[in-house]
Specification:
The chain is an alpha/beta fold. It has five helices and five strands. It has helices at 23-34, 48-58, 72-85, 101-110, 122-136, and strands spanning 10-15, 38-41, 62-67, 92-97, 115-116. α3 (72-85) links the parallel β3 (62-67) and β4 (92-97). The protein is globular, with a radius of gyration of 14 Å.
Amino acid sequence: MSKVLNRPIRVLVAKVGLDGHDRGAKVIATSLRDAGMEVIYTGLRQTPEMVVNTALQEDVDAIGISILSGAHMTVFPKIIQLMKEKQLDDVLLTGGGIIPEGDRAKLADMGVGSLFPPGTTMASIVAYIQNWVTENRNF
């Protein structure tokens, strides 16, 4: 029998940097909300510091970064570093966008969770977050 949470999963969805394409982030936020999660969407042009501070203030289970700008090898490592500094080591950092497979592997080695390329089904993203949070933040 799998574990069940007795509370909604809280997810922060963010766009970092100058990447102004937020349609995908809004679709993800809506899909997560439809799946019963509480979603905080930060909007455009966030800094890694803003994202991590919001995650801390909102007591989220997961941070989802949507990135299409090609800055993923700068953004994700900076967010991971800030999460460690703020002791958010039990919060999932995940995301999606245009991220080459080789870079996804390097980011995974740094501690970033699964990263989803365009075309990934909403159901698989929802299931991944639900499973991760149930296994790692079941309180």
